[in-house]
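task queued by scheduler; priority normal; single chain, no ligands, no partner chains; default sampling; output format set to structure tokens
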Amino acid sequence: MEEQSHLQCIAALAVLLPLVGSALWFSLGKKFGEKFVSIGAVSFLALSFACIAYIFFTATLPLRINFFQWLPLGTSSVSFAFLFDPLSLALSMVVTGVGTLIHLYATGYMHGDAGFGRFFSYLNLFVFSMLMLTLSDSLPGLFLGWEGVGLCSYLLISFWFTDEANASAGKKAFIVNRVGDFGFLLAMFCIFKVFGALSIPEILQTVQAGNFSGDDLFWTRLACFGLVLGAAGKSAQIPLYVWLPDAMAGPTPVSALIHAATMVTAGVYLCCRMQPLFLLHLDVLNVIAYMGAITAFFAATIAIFQNDIKKVLAYSTISQLGYMFLAVGLGAPVAAYFHLITHAFFKALLFLGAGSVIHGLHHEQDMRHMGGLRTKMPITFWCMTIGVLAIAGVPPLSGFVSKDEILHNVWGNHDWTLVALAFTTAFMTAFYMGRLWIMTFFGKFRGHHEAHESPWTMTSVLVILAAASALAGILNWPHLWGGSETLGTYLSTVVQALIHHAEDPAHALQSSLTLAVVSSLVGLAGLTIAYFRYRNFSGEEFSSPAFRPFQNKYYIDELYDAIVVKNLRMFGKFLWKVVDGFVLDGVLNGSAALASRTSTYLRQLQTGLMQQYALWIWIGFLILLLGAWTGRS
């Protein structure tokens, strides 16, 4: 009991520190200045990480910490409680660990900004919301964090809101995510209808017990599709991916923390958390697999033609998230989670490296105006090189190990459409990342401002993330290659892998090594082609009209604008002009005008003359007498 109380305090401290920090930096930031905010924001998050790490290394899992009864729901109720298990702890370590590094980086990147305190207030609030999402043991608690990160995303994307483009990007992210949230809410209603509860452990325990009627299976299938819609919105999958590229309008640390390392992986976490429910409906898992594969391929084709360094990484994030959903759909949640963790490291590194380049070039983001920066920004160059090689799948870096595990599962599933999409995407990933790398750091300098290396608060974070990107593959190094698959063993009590085929050890090793060689060659081929294509880049490419659909992102934004946005505006105008202006205002204003005119006529009877009042009294008396006489007869 004493140990439970002790861990309860540690858990509460881990979650509340970012929340308290958010209030402090917002209210006191301007009064005490940048140094106070910088030290406080980084320290509070580092302490939160230390609390999560303490529970990670000392607690016996699973650990449920109940704080109080929250929502009474008929005969059931929802507790405000945290669930510490391998799934939640692994992501919480990433959120607070990578979050601490990005906070440190941001102290240098945001130096001198007028909204310094406000920025770190939003950033701390985001970490609090993400921990709520990750650790909550109920769907309403998870949804509370889900909405919290959505709010913080809006606040941080539109942080420089005086620029109309930034404000519009924030609104776009907020509105598109509400579409996904409708799916999440629908799923919760369906789940409560079937299970009569919203506690995640209680739901999953009932699912594993089985014995569902046909009616129950209908509602659980609908719930699964609702969860998929919610996950697609938060994790930027087709058809709700359009908000993420525009989200690059926010400061670069925002892109690294929210839109690469943590928030956008919430959809993957949700699907892994509710995996037993999805296993009731393999057709839904198949939809998830195809959604992920198509998104990965689709986003990669757009990334090739982007010139904004952050937009390339944005579409790359969408593509890599597609890989994660592909693994989830194939019944390989460990592979998805492994890629989630390695991606958090190398994509945070790439975003922060891009931020270092932007900072060193006085906010230049167009790669056509870069080049030759490897000698001017050597630390940034070498760190980003590791990140590029990792995401391209060059062995033995972390991206190679985690992506190879996904490709191995795709190959073992024997769905050749998915195989073609997955391997083609791997080639395109290496090509567009090689393009970014060569255009930025090699050739002649094409910029307009003299470049300089970033301060130590930024470069030190790059070095740490580069080391993590290089070494994180050890976390789940395959048994067949002499590893221990630590992550797989750790998560095995929470998620279940679907076995698609069985092989003898010798054949399995040969198949694994062959696929590893093939995926490595695919990545190296993409990098090599990019090197020879862009080593003498002069600033002109893709001039043919045939490339315009790719350069314009297949006109999807224009299509959404024509079909959805304009029609919603017209409908809103109809409601404003006709329903509100003509019908509602007409009825109300007409009633007021009628009352005004009637009162004007009736007012004429109020003359103040006693004789006239007496006359009206007699007239009324006579009318009453006439009525009484008529009624008697």
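post-processing summary
- The longest helix spans residues 2-58.
- The CA atoms of residues 45 and 100 lie 6 Å apart.
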